[in-house]
Amino acid sequence: MVYNPCLPLTLHLLLSFVAYGAAFTSSVQTCRYHQNRRYSTLHSSTSDGANEVVTKRSTSTFETKFATNRCTQEPNRKWLRKFLSRNSTKRTPSYRIAYDYDELVIGNAASENTTAVMLVHPIGVGIGKWYYDRLLKSLANEDVQSSRLVFISADLLGSFTASSPIGSDSGQELKKFPLLNITDWAEQLEHLMSEYERKSCKEGHEIRNWAIVANGGCAPLALEVAQSAVEKSAPFEKDLTNVVISSPPRLPFFLEGTDPKRVQKSYRTLSGIAGKLFWKYALRKDGKFIQTFSERNLVGDPASLGNHWTPNCVSAARHLGGKSKYSTFAFLAGALQDGCKDSLNSLKGTGVQIDFIRGADRKQTRRPKSYFWKRKSSDKSAGSEAEVVKQETVEEYIERNGNRGGTSWIGGRISLAWEDPKGYARELIKLINY
């Protein structure tokens, strides 16, 4: 749908959020990454002298240069990076962003084969790494004998603890995030993966391979990281062998981009007074709107939300003065709706396995849409190829692309790692532990 100026803007924000939430569903010039870790072991146990379960929480600092002088978010991100690096005559300020991440180690402590798994949480009001708390607890109870598995869950740039950019030179806090995009988030993950490889090697456990897991609309982040890995442009060294996407959107989400100018315009609108009013409304009455919205749109059984979902959302959304709203606004504006054709083409025939985890609750889900942007209309003159795209599922497309495209079914509807953590843990280990 197209924006209608006759309706109150705040109503558009609320409707836009509801439409997007049903699916939970570019550029920086240079990045430098520094790790300042503070480890605290939350739980550690060993069994039979071999199997281990270790949980840690750490703090890291990501240093980045936002391309704040860009006027559009081009779908061809690699071309844009080259253009900016060649034509930039103005020094872009650098910012440091501290954030937390959780680490879970399970399996055979003596194994030389360590598979590291990066968990990418959804983006939404108050969502952060806590989204995977239930999953990590279930993974800790899994019996893994033959290998050693590491799971890493970090707050994405602009979410929860990662919402306070500090100027590297000025020391001043950036009050408002620029429009975040796929590259910003992907590079944060890539550099964390690189630093973790070095850390793990120093501790005597060399990483053998990586897997990356994302939910719904954050699938482009996982595919972007996988593309960087196969093209050898990522800072981490080990192969990325598995991409797992839960609650995947429909195939057009992966193949169609959005109008960059509309995304920019939408973000400016959302970052103004209307967005502030929406954020305040969403958090009022201890998150009553969040609870109602989640029950209707994100889970199959409202009881599966439990007692912690809404309080976690409210607490994270209020953290650091509510600055995580800018990552949510970027998501709502369509920053992740950039299309994944480049990534999928790069992964074609590479051996990287892309698999899916779906919820068995088949409650009707509306296709994601926003009142601030619209998809490009299908080109009817494209002929048979356009017809094939309309008929295919994302699994069929991935299989045809040579990346396996298997599907595992568990309980739940959209927020599967929270709704059915035991089923998710079981199927995830099957997919990556081969």
Description:
This protein is an alpha/beta fold and 434 residues long. The chain has a single domain, classed as Rossmann fold (3-Layer(aba) Sandwich), CATH 3.40.50. The protein is 38% helix and 21% strand. The chain contains 15 helices and 11 strands. Strands 1, 2, 3, 4, 5, 6, 7, 8, 9, 10 and 11 form an 11-stranded mixed sheet that branches. Strand 8, helix 5 and strand 9 form a beta-alpha-beta unit. Helix 8 runs antiparallel to helix 9. The protein starts with 8 loop residues before the first helix and ends with a helix. The N terminus is likely disordered.
User: What is the CATH T-level topology?
Assistant: Rossmann fold
Distance between the termini: 44 Å
Average pLDDT figure: 83
- Which of globular, elongated, flat, extended, rod-shaped describes the shape? globular
Report the strand count. 11
Tally of DSSP helical segments = 15
Q: What percent of residues are in strands?
A: 15-25%
Q: What is the total domain count?
A: 1
CATH architecture: 3-Layer(aba) Sandwich
Radius of gyration, CA atoms, in whole angstroms: 21 Å
Which residues sit in consecutive blocks of at least 5 with pLDDT less than 50? 1-45, 68-76, 378-389
CATH superfamily: Alpha/Beta hydrolase fold, catalytic domain
Tell me briefly what this model is.
It contains 15 helices and eleven strands. It is of the alpha/beta class and 434 residues long. Strands 1, 2, 3, 4, 5, 6, 7, 8, 9, 10 and 11 form an eleven-stranded mixed β-sheet that branches.
